[in-house]
Specification:
There is one protein chain. The protein has about 110 residues and is mainly α. It has a domain at about 15-80. It is about 80% helix and about 0% strand. It has helices at about 1-5, 15-35, 40-50, 50-80, 85-105. The longest helix is centred in the middle third of the chain and has 29 residues, at about 50-80.
Length: about 110
Amino acid sequence: MATCTVLATSPDAGAHFADYQKVDQLLDAAEQSIRESLESTPELAVDHHLAAVNNLIASWTINSARDLAWNNCLLLGAVRDDPNASGLLAGSLARSAALASRMLLVAV
């Protein structure tokens, strides 16, 4: 939203969404090689065996998170002229992100 404000635009104007989706395609293309660069030899063997399934799951996760982020951007744009609503939404998003982050760090 900060970029939209500086550029005097909104998330739903012009080709912003189409450009945003182009990044999904780039992430899909790069995800496999990035993951492999971080894996050990045994992990690479398993990864190659299950590559199609793993790529589908990983891409879905990244793309789903980006879809959610886009929707939140649209919501923030819709309420940006209402300080109370934008503050409530921004606070809620921050708390949700903090909760999700803590859940990722829990040892299992």
